């Protein structure tokens, strides 16, 4: 059951993801719009990519102060995503999601560190860990919502990992044009996660979401 109204979720997503004014998403009959949930999740997940790309680019270039600022903003995005999940599934799910989500960011940092130190074994381990994470994250979502098939979500998260890795590799090579192109591609892919996630939540809680 929801612990907060979806209106709070939309305001949170809009405010933390894009700095936009809070959205008034409440339906006339007291139900929130499923489309607003989709927009909110798309905003937060796209922001995840842009902030992650800013953090990894700064780290590889040795811009420590910029890296710390970007990493702080990235964690703020992670907290917002956790609260979005918690607003639907409760505080325990929020805590579990945030821990799991932060875990994959740590793995990406390990990959960046491996590149920076020319440690191929560290890079390979980070990639292996990220692939394994894809399965763990899919299992977490499937346990919360059976409308999200584990195999499908695993594939989508693997693609997220691959597209983020492509960003980091382009940054490491010094090809900034390619890096920014890869950032846009990675951000666009997040819609393939956000859209089915929003649809599955709306299907799971039809009494809470208006489809129009």
- List the secondary-structure elements in sequence, H or E: HEHHHHHHHE
Please, what is the average pLDDT? Answer: 87
User: Can you summarize the main beta sheet?
Assistant: 2 strands, parallel
Rounded to the nearest angstrom, the radius of gyration is 17 Å
Tell me, briefly, the overall form: elongated
**Proportion of β residues?**
under 5%
Backbone structural class:
mainly alpha
Number of helices: 8
Strand order of the largest sheet: 1-2
Q: What is the CA-CA span between the terminal residues?
A: 21 Å
Query: What's the β-strand tally?
Result: 2
The level of helicity is over 70%
Assembly level: single chain
Low-confidence stretches: 1-28
Quick description:
With 212 residues, the protein is mainly alpha-helical. It is built from 8 helices and 2 strands; from the N terminus they run αβαααααααβ.
What does this structure look like?
It is a single chain. This protein has helices at 6-18, 34-61, 64-89, 91-116, 120-144, 150-173, 176-189, 191-204, and strands spanning 32-33, 209-210. It is mainly alpha-helical. Strands 1-2 form a two-stranded parallel ribbon.
List the helices and strands and how they pair.
Blueprint: H1 6-18, E1 32-33, H2 34-61, H3 64-89, H4 91-116, H5 120-144, H6 150-173, H7 176-189, H8 191-204, E2 209-210
Parallel strand pairs: 1-2
Helix pairs in contact: 1-2, 1-3, 2-3, 2-4, 2-6, 2-7, 2-8, 3-4, 4-5, 4-6, 5-6, 6-7
